[in-house]
Recover the amino acids of this structure.
């Protein structure tokens, strides 16, 4: 089955969310057979963002993969979080103890991480269940009453370039945010470099490849490469900035 999801490839968080989807497919033992990024006609999506890139993949049963992600449970054991399916561990989540966070680090360090993960999974469940899952999955969002600690990954308007003003009141949560927090577990080197150097160059796999090759393209050789940067606010905060293509 061929599936296409529109992605803003100039938003590193959306690219990482793609990898989160690939990781979940692998972790649930229903992996994609091949995948790639492919340019597409520019479209204005539900969130008002222009997207001109598809994440395209072949999968034996996309509706079943979506159903199983929706059915995942978030459990806490000995203070550690994990995603489970029918009581079996699928993926451990402890990246928030290791640094590499983009956003309000001070408040996030004190946040209840179980509630944090459950909030994002709940939003994914609500939005993905009402959607075909493609091509609009990454543009779907909803307002929540809780704080969205991942807001600064999403190029939100809570950091005004002209004055550098930070507004922590953003409560809009995207379906893709759950996939992003999954990716942050496995792609520690990306986040560490971004936090340390304030910049990182990443590549897009533009040719059909198996998942292993797809991962290799992110930090390896690729004919389409972009540079992501972050800006700072306060003593510890970071905000992701729109990426620029590397010639």
């Amino acid at each position: 089955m061929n599936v296409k999801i529109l992605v803003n490839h100039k938003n590193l968080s959306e690219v990482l969310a793609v990898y989160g989807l690939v990781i979940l497919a692998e972790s649930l033992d229903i992996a994609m057979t091949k995948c790639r990024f492919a340019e597409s006609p520019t479209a204005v999506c539900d969130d008002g963002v222009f997207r001109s890139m598809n994440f395209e993949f072949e999968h034996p049963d996309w509706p079943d993969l979506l159903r199983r992600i929706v059915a995942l449970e978030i459990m806490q054991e000995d203070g550690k979080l994990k995603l489970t399916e029918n009581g079996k561990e699928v993926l451990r989540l402890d990246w928030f103890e290791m640094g590499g966070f983009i956003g309000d680090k001070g408040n996030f360090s004190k946040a209840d991480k179980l509630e944090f993960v459950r909030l994002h999974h709940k939003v994914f469940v609500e939005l993905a269940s009402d959607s075909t899952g493609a091509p609009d999955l990454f543009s779907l969002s909803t307002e929540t009453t809780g704080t969205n600690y991942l807001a600064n990954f999403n190029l939100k308007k809570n950091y005004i370039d002209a004055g550098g003003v930070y507004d922590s009141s953003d409560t809009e949560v995207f379906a893709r945010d759950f996939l992003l927090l999954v990716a942050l577990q496995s792609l520690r080197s990306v986040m560490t470099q971004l936090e340390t150097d304030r910049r990182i160059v990443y590549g897009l796999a533009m040719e059909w490849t198996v998942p292993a090759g797809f991962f290799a393209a992110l930090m390896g050789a690729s004919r389409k490469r972009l540079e992501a940067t972050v800006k700072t606010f306060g003593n510890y905060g970071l905000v992701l900035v729109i990426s620029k293509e590397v010639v």
In short: The helical segments are 12-27, 62-70, 105-109, 113-129, 176-186, 188-197, 211-219. Residues 2-246 form one domain. Confidence is low (pLDDT under 50) at residues 157-166.
